Description:
This is Inositol-1-monophosphatase. The chain is built from eight helices and 15 strands. It has helices spanning about 1-15, 15-20, 35-50, 80-85, 155-170, 180-190, 200-215, 240-250; strands at about 25, 35, 55-60, 65, 70-80, 95-100, 105-110, 115-120, 125-130, 130, 145-150, 175, 195-200, 220, 235. Strands 4-3-5-6-7-8-9-10 form an eight-stranded mixed beta sheet, sandwiched between helices. It has a five-stranded mixed beta sheet with strand order 12-11-13-15-14, sandwiched between helices. The chain has a two-stranded antiparallel sheet with strand order 1-2.
Amino acid sequence: MQVAGEAADLARTVRDEAVTDGAVDTKSAETDVVTAGDRAAERLVRDRLAELRPGESVLGEEEGGDHALDGLRWVVDPIDGTVNYLYGFPWYAVSLAAQVDGRSVAGAVVEPVSGRVWSAALGVGAFLGDRRLRVSAAERLDLALIGTGFAYTVERRKVQAETAGKLLAEVRDIRRSGSAALDLCAVAAGWLDGFYELGLNRWDWAAGALIAAEAGARLRLPGESGDGFADGTLVCATPGVADDLKDALLRFGGV
């Protein structure tokens, strides 16, 4: 929480300069952006962890790192929701998690604009500030509010749009905010009844998934197999709609 909060403060204060011409690059596609703010926030996190937890492994979105799952590793997304950050849309966050053997044991998601701090520790619970979180009591998929996200490549977005269009007829409504970490936190708070997305990286969900799980959500994480979903699919929902949401997504042929 401390280090993620420091990175959030930095991201907020440098935003205007970080998104000016010459400070924005692209990665996997022209719509997949990275700003100077992303790089500065990740560098701060790495420097602070080197001081506070010397010698421990770090995996980050911008600078990469060790992908081995063995042992203790920190996982950082310096700005989850970079397109929102670029446009000044206030739904973006710094996400930082500690994982042991690939499993999240502690995590924090901090929103630079609102100052909200989401946190969880394995077996301890999930919190927004000092308030303990609990998922919604939704029991019917047709009355559920579901979040999702879309990939940067046109081909995958077309498939995801088809799935979302079919699902829209079976749920209360669908939201697309642009930050998987915050959408997972929204499930934890009961602001969403479920969330799904294909193609998330570990830094997108390492902290948010733990927060959702500790608030009572049921999750299907990327990397799991044998259930009909692509390995990179994440599905998170309150227990009352989790099975129905997964069944619907499988019926529609993917996410």
